[in-house]
Amino acid sequence: MHPKEQKTSVTMTAENQPHSSVEGTTPVLYYDGQCPLCAGEISALAKRRGTELSLVDVHSLPEDGLRGTDESFSKEELLKTLHLRTSDGEWLTGADANVGMWTGTRRGKALTVLRWPLLRLLVDKVYAIWAEVRYRRLYPQGGTKAAAPATVREVEHQG
Description:
This protein has about 160 residues and is an alpha+beta fold.
């Protein structure tokens, strides 16, 4: 980074939403904090990226979602697929966001292969299907409240 470039830190709360695209801003990942499948990955990511990445649970945002001067997303949009706002203000979603969130880590280097042209097509389709299934399973009514976790008996009965 050039010494004259502005470096700011983004601390996210429901009241403090990012709305500028100042170059050098900490990347921000919007994730579903009620998704048990995502919890392990977000935990590992936080350990590896530390303060180089701000993590925002979509459920901490106001009911109307994320409203800014550059982009606006409803909570439902943010819950349906992963969103990453890069340090230069670009928005990445889906598999691009998943690869982007690991930037600067060993895992990130390995994941870049998923963005090669032929693999990109397949990975994007698989991610889209996975994201839709995950969303329908957690939010069967289409809302932003996760369904209660299944009990052991329910799981045994299902399968």
